[in-house]
Amino acid sequence: MKLFKLVKYIFLLFVLGVSVMIIFLWNIQEDLPDSNISEYFPNEITKIYDNNYDLLYHVGARDRFYIEYEDIPPEMIQAIISAEDKTFFQHQGYDVGGIINAFIVNLKNIYSKNNNNYVGASTITQQLVKNILLNNDQTITRKVKELILSIRIENNYSKEFILELYLNEIYFGRRSYGIASAANNYFNKSIFDLDIHEFAYLAALPKGPNNYDPSKNYQKAFDRRNYVLKQMFLNSFLNETELELFSSKEIILSKKNIKKYNLDYKTDYILQQLSQNSISSNAFYIQSTIDQNLQNIAEKSLLDNLLSFEKKYKKWSGSFKDINKIQELNYSPHWFIGKVEKIHTNSVDFKLLNTGEVVKVIDDLNLFGPDKQKPSSFLALDEYVYLTLIDDQYYLAQDLDINGSVLVMDPFNGNILAMVGGTNYKKSNFNRATQAFRQPGSSIKPFIYASALENKLYLPNSLILDSNVLLEQGPNLPIWIPKNYSDQSYGEMTFRKALENSNNLITLKIGLDLGINQISNFFEDINLYKKNENKDVYSSLLGAIENNLLNITKTYSIFLNGGYLVEPNIIKKVVSDQGELVANQDYYSCNFCNFEISDRSYRKPQFQSNQESVISPQTSFQILSILRGAVERGTGKSLNNIQYPLAGKTGTTNDSKDLWFFGLTPKFVVGVYVGYDTPKKIGYRETGSSVALPIFKSFMETYLKEHEDNQNIDFFIPNDIILKKVDANTGKFESENSSIIEYFTKDQLETINNLNKVNSIGGIN
Fold first, then answer.
1. Distance, CA of 578 to CA of 80 (rounded, Å)
2. Are 135 and 51 found together in one domain?
3. Is the dihedral of CA 65, 69, 72, 77 positive or negative?
4. How high is the mean pLDDT of the chain?
5. Which of 52, 180, 187, 302 fits a disulfide with 65 by CB distance 3.0 to 4.6 angstroms?
6. What angle do CA 605, 610, 616 make, to 5 degrees?
7. Beta bridge partners of 581
8. What does the buried/exposed string (b/e) look like for 449-460 if buried means 16 or more CB atoms within 10 Å of the residue's CB?
């Protein structure tokens, strides 16, 4: 009887257990996600590259490159199977032998109180399910779901497909998802270029990437790598000699993996352009037009020159006692953090944080620090400061009040080659190249002179009287009497010389002869009237309008490309994570231009399909030649020592609140802006020549030092241009004082031959 009751109770417990199990499985079944993974594709990070496919920025938290199974090196497959799932190609999603073995090993570890060597029994399929269909919850429910889904997937998909997804999905540490990304981030190599011991190290990582980072615990990483190699040997993937050889190899990681791709002005602008073009910034490969070499040169040129400028006007702003504070600023990749090691009477020894090198900074410490004070009065031992390297000499650096921007553009297609929107993106993400609308001052003048030539109102050698101009501004307003920057008048001056020297009064006279409406219409055609509301006031002739560096630089391109207005572009190609070409900025040769490129040109221009001609090629070249004269003899003559074809124009506003320089070369146009974010006078008698131009000069000097092979080029000359030797002061042909070459069209020379005289104010009778 007792036996019967016992059997009865056991049977009831069995039925109850089965019932509970059925209900449990039924509930799980109802809550299971779809096991269809045929369309699954791992989320990839959007990556922004420069023009040469060097990575500029990661958008998002994950770094991933997808690689298909047939392209995965067999050594990688051997390594990962040996490390994670030896029976992968035999089991049906779960490994009974592995489960039993894990149970025994873990039981032994519990008995020996060894808490560090517990092992799991999850197959590769189960790990894949956990990663893409479930979560990391440590519950019985999740494990059962994982098992069920693994069996279903194994029944519906090939082992190769499962392994492909796994190797592209699994996390390897260091922002790396997938083996291709891990190879790049750990070794700075393609997955196809790794050696056996490197495959083994990657295979060791999924178990615990942070635990096996050599920089944290080299021995632990070394031992885990060698464990994988041993398993590969036991699985007959390696012979004994290979095992011994690869087990002795050091784990040497690339330093590249420590590089941080922080958002900056150019990458921020690229993301804005994607958004404006309805392109989602998720899982795309973006090839930008940025030339990283030019970008680096532009950044350093701006920062170094603004630092030098501030040293004339500003005292020391303070050091940092906390290393974390100075690192948070992340001021510039061109600045270095130095720790005060020793203070001398007139110099200081600093230990560079990045290299450990001790450098001596003499600098003009009293100038940059408190007046007539010793270094010990404003620096203390173990404090941190920024240092900058200029011409192999370290100098003190500090937080800058003044700011600026640099833009480098290809004038033939509008490609933005470099964009520097300020000195510190972290401190201020306000992009001064695109968002700062300021008065361009005298930099507007070449466009007025271009309109005068285009409308055949003047000739390059026309004589114009430099004298006072009285302008009525309206009812109840005083008469405006504009002046030249020097407050002087210079009598008769040629059209060329007036622009070379940025003469205000002659510019006004030319503008008045053209008519304010004519100028306004022309400015609208070339997009200089972006934000200006007063399009018909006389002051606009001297640059009292508002625009940004990007638009003005774009407009200067017309003098290099034959008179065509380009649209700025910073995105070259956009490719989806599926390999689909989403956007392509396609250029083609200008097959409708009515001019030929001379043999002296380094290349033929490339134009966008929507290119618009705003002035003739001849006019564009004539203004270019005058701007070249400005560099040789005028406001830009401090560039004279640079042995390279250059043209340029300075810009200075009233009270020197905004300073500009636009430099033109056969290859690119460079725009420079300098000013305070809250407009104020930059300095006594400071001009575009004294502040903005030196930035361009530094840029070109560095560029030419690195590109000596590109120096035998020149600006292209359109056809129908005739060279004449003229007197620089009178504009007369073949005089005793003939000193310059002037450029004319055939029509202009015919006009000159038919002229009886030239009006004293420059108009043609």
1. 26
2. yes
3. positive
4. 80
5. 180
6. 55
7. 575
8. bbbbbbeebbbb
Residue 26 resides in a domain: no
314-328, 630-644, 739-753: which has the minimum mean pLDDT? Answer: 314-328
3-state secondary structure (DSSP) of residue 302: helix
Higher pLDDT, 262 or 192: 192
Q: Which of 84, 383, 546, 686 is catalytic?
A: 84
Q: Which of the residues 442, 451, 462, 502 is marked catalytic?
A: 442
Which residues, at least 6 apart from 468, have a Cβ–Cβ distance to it below 8 Å?
481, 483, 489, 505
Query: Does residue 715 contact residue 645 with C-beta atoms inside 8 Å?
Result: yes
Angle, vertex CA 176, rays to CA 224 and CA 277, nearest 5? 175
CB atoms within 10 A of CB 476: 5
Q: What percent of the chain has pLDDT over 90?
A: 33
What are φ and ψ of residue 455, in 5° steps? -90, 10
Q: How confident is the model at residue 1 (pLDDT cuts 50, 70, 90)?
A: low
φ, ψ dihedrals at 275, nearest 5°: -65, -45
Domain boundary among 213, 235, 258: 258
Phi and psi of 185, rounded to 5°?
-75, -30
**Are 388 and 421 found together in one domain?**
no
Q: State pTM to two decimals.
A: 0.70
Alpha-carbon distance 496 to 442, whole Å? 15
Count of CB atoms situated within 10 Å of the CB of 443: 29
pLDDT digits (tens, 9 = 90+) for 525-575: 888 875 545 566 667 777 778 899 999 999 999 999 999 999 999 998 888
Cα–Cα dist 95/28, whole Å? 21
442 is catalytic: yes
Backbone angles phi, psi at 669, to 5 degrees: -115, 140
Q: 390: domain range?
A: 315-400
Q: List, for residues 273-293, the tens digit of each pLDDT value.
A: 876 666 655 567 888 999 999
Maximum mean pLDDT: which of 47-51, 103-107, 171-175: 47-51
Under 8 Å CB-to-CB from 694, ≥6 apart: which residues? 305, 308, 638
Q: In whole angstroms, what is the distance from residue 665 CA to residue 558 CA?
A: 13
CATH number at residue 617: 3.40.710.10
Rounded CA separation 441/656 (Å): 9
Q: Is 332 in the same domain as 434?
A: no
Residues 344 and 218 reside in one and the same domain? no
84 is catalytic: yes
CB 742 within 8 A of CB 750: no
Let me know if 594 is exposed, middle or buried by CB neighbors in 10 A (0-12, 13-18, 19+): middle
Say yes or no: 57 and 112 in one domain.
Answer: yes
pLDDT of residue 405: 97
The last residue of one of the domains, among 710, 727, 752, is 710
Enter the DSSP assignment of 690: I
For residue 563, tell me if it sits in a domain.
Answer: yes
Which tokens belong to 402?
């003044």
